[in-house]
Structure formats: structure tokens, C-alpha cells
Amino acid sequence: MNEDSLMHAPNFVIKPRSHTVWENQCVRLHCTVSGWPDPRVVWYKNNVTIDPLAHPGKFKLQSSYNVHSLEINRCDFDDTAQYRVSAMNSKGELSAFASVVVKRFKGEIDESLPAPRRDVIEDGPVSEYGITFKTHIVDTFGVSFGREGETMSLGCTVIIYPHLHRYQPEVQWYRDHVLLTESKWSHMHWSGDRATLTLTHLNKEDEGLYTLRVTTKSGYETYSAYVFVRDSDAEVEGAPGAPLDVCCLDANKDYIIVSWKQPAVDGGESILGYFVDRCEVGTNHWCQCNDTPIKFARFPVTGLVEGRSYIFRVRAVNKSGMSHPSRVSEPVAAMDPADRARMRGTSAPWTGQIIVTEEEPAEGIVPGRPRELQVTEATKNYVVLSWKPPGEKGLEGVMYYVEKCVSGSDSWQRVNTEIPVRSPRFALFDLAEGKSYNFRVRCCNSAGVGEPSDPTEATTVGDKLDIPSAPSKVVPTRNTDTSVVVSWEASHDAKELVGYYIEASLVGSNVWEPCNNKPVNATRFICHGLMTEETYVLRVRAVNAAGLSQFSEESEPVKVKAAIGGGIPHASPTPPYGISVLECVRDAMVLAWKQPTFIGGADITGYFVDYREVIDGVPGKWHEANIKSVSERAYRVTDLKENKKYQFQVRAANMAGVGIPSLPSDTFLCEEWTIAVPGPPYDLEIREVRSDSLVLLWRAPVYQGRDPVNGFYIDIKEADAPEEAWRGVNTKATEKTFFKIKNLKEAETYVFRVRAQNKAGVGKTSEVTDPVHAVTKPGTTEIVVDVDDDGVISLNFECSDLNADSKFVWSKNYEEITDSTRMTMETKGNMSKAIFNTPGEEDIGIYSCFVTHTDGVSASYTLSEEELKKLLEISHDHKFPIIPLKSELAVELMEKGRVRFWLQAEKISANGKVDYVFNDNLLSQGEKYKMHFDKDTGVIEMIMECLNPEDEGTFTFQLQDGKAKNQSSLVLIGDVFKQLQKESEFQRKEWFRKQGPHFIEYLSYEVTPECCVVLKCKVGNMKKETVALWYKDGRELKADEHLSFAEGVLTLEIAQRGSTADTDDDQVWRAAKISKKDAGIYEVVLKDDRGKDTSTLNLTDQGFKDLMNLVFSVIANSSTPLKITSTDEGIRLYTFVNYYNDLLQVTWHYKDSAIAFSDRVKSGVVGEQLWLQITEPTEKDMGKYAIEFHDGKDGLKRTVDLSGKAFDDAFAEFQRLKAAAIAERNRARVAGGLPDVVTIQEGKALNLTCNISGDPVPEVTWLKNDREITSDEHIILKFESGKFASFTITAVNTSDSGKYSILVKNKYGTESGDFTLEITEGTPDLGVTSYCTDADGNVVFGPNTPKEKMKSSITGTKTKKRKESVTKTPPAEKMEDNKESKNKESGKKKEEKITAAVSVQPKGSDSEQKVAEQPAGTAKDPEPAAETQPENTKK
Q: What confidence score (pLDDT) does residue 1352 get?
């Protein structure tokens, strides 16, 4: 077996152990190291190489059989240090540490010995001798170019001061930060003042950044430059370049997986694939492993002999030919990985120690299930499985069987049927491409086969790795006279990315040359070897095992010319600052610091931390805390001493080199923190500074305290304010590590700090931020959300302050977006775009963009749920564009009953087109269908003359304008179609009807405010010969004043004004009220020689009810508010209407309930007054009353509240009127029977009788010429039955002439009646003469009155004089409307003219009173009838 196959990195089998010794004792540190080739072992003291020659007798180094030791003789106090042993070979480097502590007895210090030197030397650490070395690297090599197959030497002169004879510094060479070791490809030489590296046979693997590192006891110096290796000339013109970096990914006893990187040069033709060759170590026979080219840059080589070692090479092929072979791989043995592990290292000699490395195997136990089985790699050629052994320890040597099963079946097949594998890794071949498989593994040993592991998920055989997408946003920047700096946006969603190739081309030449022949992993590269003052364009493409991506878009042209300041290599970062402690344990501290204020024009690649111990205030020498740079601004410094004090310094590095160190930090005590509250937050950063707000970011404390951190508080103060001015920004702790601080004062300068809290309380404050000026800088822009024409939602941010190194960094919730599954980033020029791949609820959050290498240019945008919903709607509209419609497809009827289908598009171009579809059949222009498309207005229409039964169905207009589409459909089926068809036919008939006289508006009615019912209709197309005939119930109505025709309207008044009665004085006009007799069917006929038209109005049954309800509504709305009045009988509520109709239905309510009428509570109507009479009211009648008018709908209510003062006032007035009525009814009264003037012949007997009323019975007194007279033989006065008073003169003589009066009196009042007696001469009458008077007591005629006397009447004026009664009768209440004025007129007194005529034969009547000359037997006058009013009374 070839030993080359056993190469592996160093490993410490036994690590050195720490010791504590007394002074003057010896101590020995030893370790056992394995590795192949044999590792080179170097010992360090406090990170300084131990040179035994420089310390004769002090240190002794020994190495034997991989056992290495360091012996320190006669230890003194200065030997207290940390010792490190480094083992290094071509496969890597490994270190182990041990501490030596030297103690001294008290009082045993030798005063003659010098004290340990503690002086601080600014230029470097203090060595044991107190000598500080200064190292200078001069005569350096520059950027170098070579070609494959050539030899290249790189050298530098190293000057070390002071110069010590035989002192040799440690000289190391690195390529791309990987330590180089002596090999057949590279030789290193140190001559004492010059370091040389010789590359014996250049290959593209040798391209990279070479660094020389010279380490002395005082530190180290470095120098770097880039080496470019170009392809050698191809054997066949147009053939591709050779592949590179051929290595073995996985090796087993029956296969080895070989991988490589694709070349940058494809010869002008696409590479068709690769051939893999193998050669057994020790022979020169190369054998091709694959018959056909493979494109995937990995290939499993099978058919190997177990135990033998092989090397491999790869060739590329295109249409032109084959490339040169690549550099051969390192040798690798075809054997089980478990066997390889057991064969590593060499047995150490007996040391007197027994080391138990493994538990004794337990025999007879069947192993358990393998754990964590997974598919680590899957291509179309092979699938690699890996797993972990079962958890049980001490099992006899475990091996494995692998089984497969086609997904969806349960048929498991063993893959390695003959020999089980020992290593927990296995590759499967001969799987069917495109099929899905499940895999599982069983353990086995001599005791048997165990249970299978859990199967894997279904794995489809095929290349899972996709070719990466093309990079973007290639930005070139001037650097030197022969180089430019190019940066680009990384490929999105690129998996297992190997790196990038850059190409440059002279503008206009279209000839592209590679700038690098080895892929670079960064997104920034310096392209050297360009021609000064020439203009180039550049492009980039990515590469992974699946292949090379498409080229990016070409960059903007750039002229090769030195940038101001000599280019980027001359700028290194300024020192970091603000070093603080985040956590402290017994032997370690976590430090944090702030980024340098100037990063040197290039991104910071990392930081280096140094530390030194401070004893009694005296600092010690500096030690490196980290050899490899750290990218974070926080680092854990380990291997410190508990309760010791330390200082720290930090240096920043970029592509230009490592900057100067920071100032030493404060002195920190290394003791374990035990406080319950959290440590300080750190790495505070200010973003999005505006005039009134900013965003503060920070990181959670490293030290959590007793409980996890559950929130943060932010403090603020003005920069120049005292410490007491600190105040909180948030009263409630925020769980996030960012916070937007608002309500800042413009132009004010602020500082901030953050505190964390847990359940125990609030912890330490963070370091204070640098002062921030709250000002919105000119040119500040915000993130703009956009939805493009394809519906892609993106966030866009523009920055005008970009430089060559600026990058747009997108974050979600202020965490950088690295997962490209949700978003894709694109940058072009000064614009960056973050594109949502599949927007959804998981994308809700705060998105921010920060531009590096600018003065804090940043902005944010909050994507809320509502905003996302809105954007998704817009995206859908853009993704599936539609032609917007102002109106959907509709149908309307046109003149003559034609049917118009139409819609209107909001906007459509001249290229738009429309398809007219009926029931999925395309319609075309013709006699039945008339189509029109107005592209200016967007109106699309189709007209049909009429609808037939076969036209029932779905009509659709399909619109298309470019890629935008839309359609609108109208379904006309069933009742909808029938109704439209019926309406169309009707409109068609209507059109013909309107060719002659016709009704524009058919017969209808209206009720005027005066309650007149008017029938009307609007007519058109009339001429002189046109006649209009009215009919009711088939009977023609003759034209009179009730029919009219004006302005095209025919009217007929059903109820109109007319006279109802004639009186002596004037004519009273009233509205004739509509009644049931007016019900009927009314009809109007228009006709002339062009045709006729008829309109009918049915006013019977429901039609008449509806009309009356409208009348009732008018009446109800004319009603006056309900009022209260009092009568002598009780309280009356009343309202007036303009016009009353007997059919009107009203309901009176008391307390919202209908009133049940009785003798005490009645309602009625008098004229236009509707009243409710409450007789003899009591307090129980108090409450809310209403009258409700019924009109068939909601009706109308008038209400009044008869309670409180209203009731009290009405009741008091009722009492007063009642008393007055009683007084008026019972007072003394002369009812009638006395004339005003009595003319009688002398000698005649006169007899007058009058009615007397009153309760109690009045007293009667007769007066003559105002003097009381008494009854005697001549004048007989009688008062009979308390009712009749008679006045008799037995024989009238002239002395009886005069004025006579009767006076009646009782307690309620007094009244008198007067008459004048005139005596005339005349012939005696043989009989008794009687005089008749009318009802007012006027003599009309007598039986013996001559005819001529009857014609010549004696006239006089009757006056009734009534003395004022005891109880005065109140005047009648004044009414508010016209009825009151009429009542007043009827109540006025008129002077009555009485005519007395003598008649031979007088006629009597009910109203006549007889005046007899006989003294007795006088006829009694009937009582006057009481005046009544017509009224409708409800009981």
C-alpha cells in the first residue's frame, strides 16, 4: 500500500498538560502528535517562538516517534507564561496550549537579581532580553504574471534591527491566507536576509494572493502581492483551458469521488464536458475513466483495487478539441474510511503510561439502529449517504448494510450484499435517473444484523444543483495605471458556489480576455495587467459544480488611470475604538469595539485582538489573541488568568493590509460575573437619520444574567447635556433589537445608550453612541414600492452618493437578507431593487436598505398586512392585465323596439379588436346584427331589430388590446328574456302608435291642495282635426267648464267649486266633495285621420280607495294643530281641516289607546271642525289625546297634552261657563207677545198676553210711562201659572195712550218688554176685534181691518231693553277661520220692520200670537223653538 494515500492533517493524541512549580525547579511539557507527512512541531512562549540557541541551557526541545517535549530548566518567575505547541504539515495546522505557573517562597527573593523588566516599548513587545526587533520588508515582488508550465520566483529582502548573529526569524509563505509548505510544486529559502519562494511548475492552482510573513520575538511583518497564471497555448486552436483544483471529495474501497473547477477559458466554444483520468501511484499509466464527456464537475470513479493509491487528472473538451490535462490530485487510497483511520499515525514507544482509548467490546450484543441517516449528495450518477453509529458503547466492531427502495413501494433491496461497509458513509451507483428512492441502513456484527434505521425522505435521482444565475450590477472603479477595481452583485439563489470569473475587453474590440484563471470567492476583485489610458468594459460570471452561469451585463466603460491617492492598496483602516467588556468568566473575556471612522476605501475583512497583563499598574507585553482575523466586532479572548487585570488593543484589516492598533483599552479585571441582571448590549448603530427621527440598532448582551433577556430600554440625551439629562425613550421594554426614535428636534445633536432587562431587573448600559446630528441631508431619498407591468412587486432605493466600493445591503426587520428564496436583489448604477419572489404573509415586516461606504445613506419601508393586500391586488392586475371597462355589457331598447347591446371600455388603443359571441358562436355583421366600435370613446355596440325566441341565450363581447384582455357577458334566458322580448314588442307598437295622436303620459289623477280631484293626461302629435272624447263607465262626458286642454295636457275636475245655497244677502261657494258616486272607469280617446289612442283609468274598488286615501292624506296635512277649548258642558278638543269629506276616517286616542265613546265622551264634525267633547271632565280625563287621520298608509296624528296647567285652565273655564249657562238659562225673561206699537180704535177692548220664564218664578210689574200701575176694573193685570202675563183694557180711551212696560225679575236677572199704545177714532165695531202679532210681538192685522189699511201699514221699531242680569253671559269664543266670521254675521242684531195691516179674515200660524179684545180666554203663544245646528254625533 502506498503511504501517500494516508496523508492527513496533524492531530494531538496527547496534549501538553499545564504545570505549577516552584522557582528553580524544572518542568517538562510533552505531547504526542500524529499526521502524515510528519508534522513540523514548533513551541511558543506567549506566542513567541522558542529558540533554544537564543537561550542556552534554558530550553531543551526533543522529538522522538511523534512524541515531542519542551523542558524548561531552573524555572524563574519570568517563565510564568502560556506555552503553545504548533503542529503543521501540508494538510493543515493544529495547536495545543498549556500554562506554566512559577511560584516563589516569601522572603526568598534574591535581591541581587534584577527585577523583571516591565517597560512598555511603543514599537513592539518586550522580549526576554529586553530587545525589541524592528522588521522591514524591502525589495519586494510586485503583481506577477506567469503561464502554465513556467517557473516563477518571488522574493523579498528582510531587514531586522538589531542584527543578531545566528538569529533566525520565522519566515512563512501563504497563498490566499493558506500556509504553504515545502513540496514538489513550491520551494522556500531563507538566506539570512532574503526570503524566496520558487514555484517550480506553474499551474492555475498557483494563482492567488501571496503573503510573506516574518515573525520575530517582537511581532511580525507581512507583505502581499497577487500572482496571475495564464493558460498555456492549447495544442489545438480553439481548445479550452485545463480544469483546475482536482481533488477527491470522498474515498471508499470501491469508489472515489473526484471534483474539479471549470476553466475560465472555453476557447470560444462551449465546453461539451470533461474526461477524468486515473493513474495508480508508482506507475505512469493513465487510464480514462468515462467514455463520454460529463458536464457536472464531480464524477465517481469505480473499478478500483482496494488498498491501492491513485492520482487523478481532468481534461476539458469542446468542438475544437481537448485541453491540456489539469494538475494531478493528491494521492488517495481506495479503502474503507474506517481502515484508513486505524492506520493513521505511528505507534509511540513505551512511556510507562497506559492510555485507554476505547471501551472493551462487549461480545454477543446485536447493535442498534444507525442514527441521523441523510442524503448528503445526490446527482444523476450517484447518491451519497451518511449516518452516525448507534449510541451504544462497547459494541463489537460494527459494520453496515445499505438498503434501497423505490418510493411508494415497500420492497427493500440490499445494495452491498456481499461485504458490509465499516465507515458510516456510502455512495450508491446505478440508480435510474428520474426515479425516487428511499434508503435505510442496518448495523451488523458477529452477533447478528440489527434493526434498520428510519428511512430517508424520497430522493429523486438527478442533478439537484442548478447552474447559478448571472451576477449583476458590475461596477468598475479606477485603481492604478494598470488596474481597476471591479465589484458586482452576487448571483441569487446560487448553491455550492465555487466563485466568479472576470473578463475584460477593450471598448469596441469585442475581444474578451480573462482577468483571473482561478475563481474568486469575493464580489470584488482588482483586475491587473490592463493598458494605461485605455477604456475597458468588464463582465462577470459565476461557477459551481453544475457549470458556468451566463455572463452579467457589461459594465459601464472605465478608463485605466490611477485614482486619486494612488489607488486602494495605499489605504488601510484607521484604528477601532471604544473597547468594552461584554462578558467575563474565570479565564476569558468577551470584548466589543466600534468600527473605525475611516475604513480605508475597502471593506474591512476582519479584526485582530491583542492583550497584555497589567500587574500593579505596570503593563506587560502584547500577545496575539487571534491568529486568524474575526469578522464580527466582538471576540472572546480565552486562556486568561482569573483575578488578573488586562488591557486590549484591536487592529482592523482590509485588502490594503492591517491598520495600526487602537489605543490600549481601560484595564479590566478578569473575574467571573455573577450578577443576576444582563450585561450591556453592544454594537450600537445609527441608521435612517432624519430631522425628526432615526433608527437605533444594537445587539443583545452576551451575558444574559440569571434569566434570559426579555426586553430593552433606550436612553437619550443631548450631546452637550450633563449626565443627569439622560431620559428614557420607551416606557415599555421592546423585545426587538431595533427601535425608531421619533419626535427629535431638528438640528439638535443627540447620543444614545441601551439597557437590557430580564426577570431580575435592568442591566448595565451599553457604550454611548457617537453624537448624531438630527438633520435630513440634502438628496435623502426613501424606499419606493413599485409594481411593474409583469406584476412584479419590488422595493426600490436610489443613492446618488455611491463610490466604487459602495454596496446596497437589504434587511428585513434590520437583519440582512441572505436567503434568496423570498427576495431577489438587483443593483444597476445607483439604483437597487429588492424583488419579492412569491409575496405572501411571511413577507410582512420592516424592510431597510443601507448603502456601505457612504455617509449613512439608509431608508426603510414598512410592509403591513393591508399594504401587502393592496400590492397583491395591483400585482394581479398587472400580471393579468385587463382592459378596464367603464360599464359592463348591458342591453337597452331603442326607438321602434330595436335592441341595443353595448358596453364602454375605459381606454383602448386603435389596435383593439372585439369579437361578438352568442352561445359560443361568433357573430358577424349582417342584416340581423349591426356592430359598431368607436375607438375614440370606447363604446362597443350591437343592434338587433327585434328579439325572436331563438335569440334566447348568452351574449358576450370579447375585447383584446395587445396582451390586455377582457370580456363581458349578458345572460338573457327565462323570464328575463321574455320580459325584454315583450318590452321590445311593446316599444315597437308604441313607435307606430306615436305616429298619430297619442298619449305622452297616460290618464292619471292628482289631488290639489284645495282637495280638488283632477284627472289629467299629456298628449302629443295633435292637430286641429284631433278630437278628445271623455267617458265615464262608457258614457260620454259632455264638454263643459270642467274639461280643459292647455299645453298638451287634458284635464277633468271630478270635484270642483260650485254654489250650494242662496240667501237674502249673498251667494256662499263651497267645494263639492268627492263621494262614492264619482267612482267609475274613466277613459279618454284621441283620434283623427292618422289614427286613435286610448287611455283608461280605473277608479273603482282599489283604484277608488287609493284615490280617496290620497284625498284623505291632503285633508290630514291641512289639519290645524289640535287645540283645547271649554264649553258649559265640558272640555272640547278640536282641529280644523280645509275641506272635510264624509268618507274620512279618524280615530281619537287617549294615552295611545283608541277612545271608547259614551254619553260623556263624544266626537263629531261641525263644518270643517272635528271635535271631541268631554262632558263633566274630571282629573281622570287628564292625559295625552290624539286624533289620527287614516289615509291607507302611515296616516297622520295630531296630539295635545291635556294635563297640568292646560287641564287646570280648561277645567276652570268650563266651571265658569257652566255657571254662566245656568244663570242664562234660569234668569227672568220675557219670551215674546208684546208688539212695539199697538194702534187701536177708541172704545175697543185691548188684550195682550206674553210668555214669562225664569226659575225661580219672576216677579211681574207693569209700568205706564215708567210708572207702576196696578190692576183695576179698567186695566186688568194677570200672571197665571208662572208663565203667562196678560194686559187687558176693557174700553180703550184716549187717556190710555202712552208707553207701557212689563218688568220681570228674579235672582238671576231682570228683563223688560215695552210697547206703545196709540188710540184712534173710528166706527164702532159690532164684534170683538183681535190683533195678531208675529213672533216678535208686532201687530200684523186684525179681522176688521179694512183692505186699504192692510196695505198702509203702521211701522215702528221694536226694541227690547234688558237690564243687566246678575250673572253675565260670556261672549261667544272668537274662532280662527272664515267660519267664525260667518257666525258673527249671523249673530248680529237686525232692526226688524213690523207692518200691521187690518184684515177681515186673519190667518193664524204657529208663529202668530193673537191679541183679543176680550178680557179672558186669551190664546197662549207657543214657546220659541230652540235654534239647532246640524251635527254628526258618535255615541
A: 36
